[in-house]
Amino acid sequence: MIDQATIDRIMDAARVEEVIGDYITLKKRGASYTACCPFHNEKTPSFSVSPARGIFKCFGCGKAGNAVTFVMAHENLTYWDALKVVAKKYGIDVKERDLSPEEIRHNNDRESMMITAAYAQDYFTKILRSHVDGKNIGMAYLAERGFTEATIEKFQLGYCLDSRAAFSNTALRDGYKKEFLVKTGLSVERDSGELADRFFGRVIFPIHSISGRVIGFGGRTLRTDKTAPKYVNSPESEIYHKSSSLYGIFFAKKAIMQRDKCFLVEGYTDVISMHQAGIDNVVASSGTSLTADQIRLIKRFTPNVTVLYDGDAAGIKASLRGIDMLLEEGLSVKTLLLPSGEDPDSFARSHSATEFVDFIGAHEEDFISFKTKILLSDSKSDPIKRAEVITDIVRSISVIPEAIPRSVYIRECSKLMDIGEDVLTGEVAKLRRKKLYADAPNAPKPPEPPDAAASPDALHTPPIPAFVENVFCREQERELIYLLLRHGNQSCFGVRVSAYIISEIAGEDLSFQNLEYRQIFEEYRKLLEASETVDNRHFINHPDQKICELAIDLLSEKYTLSKIWKLPDASEVEEDRLRVEVPKAINVYKSKIVTQAIMRLQQGLEGKTDEALDILLLKLGELSKVRTKLSEMLERPVF
Length: 639
Known about the structure:
51% of the residues lie in helices and 11% in strands. It contains 27 helices and 18 strands. A five-stranded antiparallel sheet has the order 1-2-3-4-5. It has a five-stranded mixed sheet with strand order 13-12-14-15-16, with helices on both faces. Strands 6-9-10-11 form a four-stranded antiparallel sheet.
């Protein structure tokens, strides 16, 4: 048996188009994918996959299901075996065993909590529509906010009576257990043992999971008492995790897929008003700080996010960290600043869908322009504050995982802030190099020796410009992998050889072109981040036979360094040898890349217009400086 929590993790992680795409070729068609059905012979595709709904359907033979049932049918597996196949794809550890009575009870309790939450939603909705207080207080408030009957029904809005235990007493009479009312956070147990309603006197906003089940609630008070919190949310529970939930995701996921964009706002009413205005690809973080899990949930449906801000400058500055988190997860981020005094809720209610969409198109901007405008708003001509703004923006650019978007943003920042691209590129590379050390928490950190010549920072080559493409350097790549496998756990300049090599290569987004060398490098990097030392048995016993053979070859004594090395005397200790070998291997590798880039640019000079020629000459100038520095560090000409 597989416990329910693991099953839920597997089902949440599985993307139906990715799982099925491992077996058949899918073609994009709008928000869905099509293919010829693998379960019956056909020439015209009738097999459809809907990522938004997480299902597949063949309109020819009628076969339908989700990612797991597809694997069951295609591989002729049991449900449990198919779950394990999907779990393996997403790196989820499955411990198959007989569930203990306690685990069975836990799974049953979780389902009981789901049923209790569904009951509560139905109760609150009925009170809103049929009870005199629900209609006169709750419905009157929602009507005042401009919500239509259709909107109220769609989001299953409700009302909890302004009585301390009206809901709890009704639920107990209907047979729902006190234990689950408390565990879901719907009720609070007093010292006397009696229950009190958590949401009494509040309009209710049910929170749905990605599959549409009610997992929690938000309640807005209608009291004038300023000491009472305006909103109360369900506490963390077995079924509701605030950090991994987004309000409105169930209603928005299809539209997000279709439009390939997600609008991110703060509150419940922002989402509802925008939906009612016709903009339904919108979700909210529900007033909490944005989390990595919430961002990954958005990324399942689109890489494009526009964050909507109201005119509160102080609030915007406090929430700018969310932009960096979005960038770090690889999303393309735009921002939209609404007019002063407006928020998404009020703006959606006072404008038509067309007006709102037109405003977005005319005013959304990339995060660099936005951050610059916000952060420079009170700095005026102060050069120190201007430098702080540039540093802040460079820090944001440095977290972007992909090299091409980083290069584009560096160029834009250079123009906007009137500062050289080479300076920005160097700062970004430095920050990424530091992050690589930080991401390996068990690895020794770069020391701060008194002698600058002994510091690894003194050995960092000038950053290779972002426009330079990687080239095939088989011999140089082999030298670096040899050093990584044979000496990775030894010390060099106060840090491990592996940390030093990885920071120099990955820190500048250089990538090995030999597939086996690249795979070893990337796997070594991940292992280093997870543990203090890397055991080479991982590569010797690798399931990929090519990796296994290559590791054995490099770790055997028959392999020696190439003739380019001028090794120290045998009397020198191992660390002194590595202080020479490792930097030289890195610099030789980089010199090969720079030399090839210069040759390509020189070949492209002929026949260029004046403007294009100027750009090429500027690039050649940058590369020449790097090549000169490499020549000095290698103590020989670089050709």
